[in-house]
Amino acid sequence: MNATSASDKEMLARGALDIMGSGLPGFALGVLGASPDCIKLIDLEGRVSFMSENGMCAMEIEDFGTVAGLRWTNLWPPEAKETLETALATAREGERTEFEAFCPTAKGKPRWWAVTVTPVHNPLGEVHLILASSRDVTETVNARRMLEEQAATLAREVAEKDTALARQKVLLAEIDHRVKNSFAAVIGLLNLQARNHTDPALREAVAQAASRIATLARVHDQLYRDPESDHLPLAAFASGLLADLDRALTGTVRAEILVPKELLLSVNAATALGQVMAELVGNAIKHAGREHLPIVEVTLATVGESRLLLSVADNGPGLPPGFDPAARHGLGMRILSVYSDQLDADLTCTNTPEGGAMFRLDFPVR
Ligand SMILES: Nc1ncnc2c1ncn2[C@@H]1O[C@H](COP(=O)(O)OP(=O)(O)OP(=O)(O)O)[C@@H](O)[C@H]1O
Ligand SMILES: [Mg+2]
Questions:
Q1: Which domain holds residue 255?
Q2: What CATH number does the domain containing 301 carry?
């Protein structure tokens, strides 16, 4: 703003520029005008008596005459009025106020302002003018609002997911419960049928079916201890399942698990491994225990960084010469072949130096 404009002269006449206490009105106006903010001087009745040139620019006011002498609060939207009146009253009391408020420019552009309302004292120490300085903070406010909206959306999504997860947990627990009940019911039914059959071969077959389903139930039980994870700690799973098999069978299963506690295996691989272990241990007891108490040695160990070796050996008569698991028609060998393919395992069937059967599966950790 030019220090010689009509409104400056009017200001000078009213003594408003003494606010700087410099006695240099031109200098005082220059300082106010240089501020990048919108600076207004407001009299004690709340009327605008001065607006800096940058302020007119920011507010898109072309002629100060259109606002000069108007109540400052009337330049704002009604919702800001109360805040402004309070700020003016506080300034009259000699205190300063800061707030953030929305006010469109004279041409209607939406703008947010950080406003400071400060009392201006005359040389006698009385408040005789009020200085309002508004800084355009639209970009900051918009960015903050966008962040707040994003945070709120995120919080809403997290809450929704939490609810869904909680519902899923309840559902999983319910499914787990039902599966266990179904297993128990089928096993009970098969055992009942096995007892009722007079044909020993049929009785044995049905009892075998019951025991395989019991194995499935055991694998399920080990797997669903942590239903949320698609991986499980291998060592705990394998030793749990083998202890379980040992209890259910002869109590002569010796397990050696040489796998780091933290090693994880996918649920799919663990299911396959569980079935393989159950079939091999079952076979060892069935075929090695014909003449004496069967001892089954199960070793599960890591080989290098990424492979595992499962070995199941017994103290029985061993496998016949030229034994080919794929050529056998027993269900056990078929289960072994399906699951060892699923594990992508190299399968070897040999005899131990002592003559017992030994099955080894070498497979990648997945
Ligand atoms: N540990 C073992 N010791 C000796 N022979 C074995 C051993 N495991 C398997 N065999 C031989 O391999 C054959 C095939 O085994 P497989 O498990 O497929 O059938 P099964 O055990 O006879 O019957 P099931 O269908 O009930 O398993 C067995 O009949 C047995 O001759
Ligand atoms: Mg078998």
A1: 230-364
A2: 3.30.565.10
Neighbours of ion ligand 2 (CB under 5 A): 283, 332
Closest atom of ligand 1 relative to the 335 alpha carbon: 18
Last residue of a domain, one of 120, 144, 168: 144
CATH number, domain of 113, equals: 3.30.450.20
In a shared domain, residues 234 and 348? yes
In a domain, 206, yes or no: no
Calculate how far, in angstroms, residue 214's C-alpha sits from the geometric centre of ligand 1. 19
Number of the ligand 1 atom closest to the C-alpha atom of 312: 1
Range in 67-71, 90-94, 322-326, 341-345 the model is least confident about: 322-326
* Whether residue 13 has pLDDT greater than 80: no
> What are the residues facing 233 on neighbouring strands?
264
Q: At what angle do helices 200-223 and 234-248 cross, to 10 degrees?
A: 150
Whether 349 is covered by a domain: the verdict is yes
How crowded is the C-beta side of 180, counted as CA atoms within 13 Å? 12
Which pTM was predicted? 0.56
Is 156 part of any domain? no
294 lines ligand 1 (CB under 6 A): no
CA nearest ligand 1 atom 22, residue: 330
110, 144, 178 - which closes a domain? 144
Concatenated DSSP letters of 273-321:
HHHHHHHHHHHHHHHHTTTS---EEEEEEEETTTEEEEEEEESSS-PPT
Better-scored residue on pLDDT, 32 or 209: 209
Q: Is the CB of 55 inside a 6 Å radius of any atom of ligand 1? A: no
Q: Which ligand is nearest to the CA of 207?
A: 1
Each residue's pLDDT tens digit, 63-81? 999 999 999 999 999 999 9
User: How do residues 111-135 score in pLDDT, each as one tens digit?
Assistant: 999 999 999 998 899 999 999 999 9
> Is residue 95 a contact partner of residue 50, using CB atoms and an 8 Å limit?
no
Number of domains in the chain: 2
